[in-house]
Amino acid sequence: MYFSALLSLVLLFTSLFVPALSIPPDKRTGRYFYPGLPLPVQVVHQFPPGTWLHNLAVRRNGNILTTALSSPELFEVDNRGKDPMKLVHTFANETSCTGITKMGMDKFYVIAGNFSLSNFTGVPGSWSVYKVKMRPHLNRPAQVSLVAKFPDSIVLNGITVLSLARKWLLVSDSAAGVVYRLDARTGNIVKVLEDPLMKPDSTSGVGVNGIRKPLADDFLIFTNSDRNILARQSINNNGTSRASAEILVNVDGPDDFAVNGAGNVVLVQNRANRMGRVTGRAVVTLVSPASSRKKAPDGTASGLFGPTAVQFGKIAPFFRKHRADWMKAYISTNGGTAQYLTGNVTRGGTISVVDTRAYW
């Protein structure tokens, strides 16, 4: 508890003060310069056509781990775009991967199961959560182990840390509109949340999607893609409901999102090809189809087609190597959702980056 509180204070301090110290003021006016919106997008790595990237997490070295919905694979992408992309693991007897979260030093938890992109449905009872332990110093493959199978699941999607001390995770089921608590040590599963705002409607069957539990906060924040909302629910320490969920903002086609140390939320809008910051009861667009685009290091064309998730870079503002990275937003995409609906798949997903330092 004390560690979580201390970490939250450190993140709050750095979020509030470090950006202002790192951005030089205008020499003539003495004011800080904030570039016009939308912000430019840089592709870090372009995947082959048909690769639907679903979610991402940031390693301790700054590299990006990303899951694929189009295959049961976990990839590692150099956040600088210099080293080749690596296949971390292929999950046997699965067809897709969805959510990923970090809990511990270079330890990640990944959702995998059976999902069809041809009809956008999952196989009930096929979903599991795996632990992936990266071993960079041993120069060995990642160590992967099964944490738990979810026999009552329909489509598991989001995953976040509930308690570091107790090794508890929260896992969302988008089709069922519920959230489970998973004990990562024992594999015990308990359904803890089932609110009307988490349920899907008849649009696509995707209810509660991305979920985040900020440290030292009593709220679970979540998106509902069908209902076009970002909402939150007050919860107890064990993840159960303390009060009914409430809508924070209405937003077109929200997918996943990220929360920084100061509690600021940025989210991606899959159908609209946008990324925005939640400000009050509105979403300010940071990235849009009108954003200028730069080519990837390998020379391929870039673009923010079908953004699926976003995470801030490595949190190390006082170290020169990563000082600029911790306020960059890394975004996974699927290449454009519409192409999967028509069956004419011509683009692959990307890992892209947007420098948000001047905006915060």
Brief descriptors of the model:
360 residues, mainly beta, 5-stranded mixed sheet, 4-stranded antiparallel sheet, 2 helices, 8% helix
Structure overview:
With 360 residues, this protein is mainly beta. Helix content is 8%, strand content 42%. It is built from two helices and 27 strands. 48% of the residues are buried. The model is unreliable at 1-34 (pLDDT under 50).
List the helices and strands and how they pair.
Layout: H1 2-22, E1 41-46, E2 53-58, E3 64-68, E4 73-77, E5 86-90, E6 96-102, E7 107-113, E8 115-116, E9 121-122, E10 127-133, E11 143-150, E12 156-163, E13 168-173, E14 178-183, E15 189-193, E16 208-212, E17 219-224, E18 229-234, E19 246-250, E20 254-259, E21 265-269, E22 274-279, E23 282-287, E24 293-294, E25 307-312, E26 328-333, H2 337-342, E27 350-355
Catalogue the unreliable spans.
1-34
Total number of β-strand segments? 27
Distance between the termini: 28 Å
Principal-axes geometry comes out as globular
- What portion of residues is helical? under 10%
Round the mean pLDDT to the nearest integer and report it: 86
Count of DSSP H/I helices: 2
Describe the biggest sheet?
5 strands, mixed
Radius of gyration using CA atoms only: 19 Å
Structural class, from helix and strand content? mainly beta
Order of helices and strands: HEEEEEEEEEEEEEEEEEEEEEEEEEEHE
Which strand order does the major sheet show?
24-1-27-26-25
How much of the sequence lies in strands comes to: 35-45%
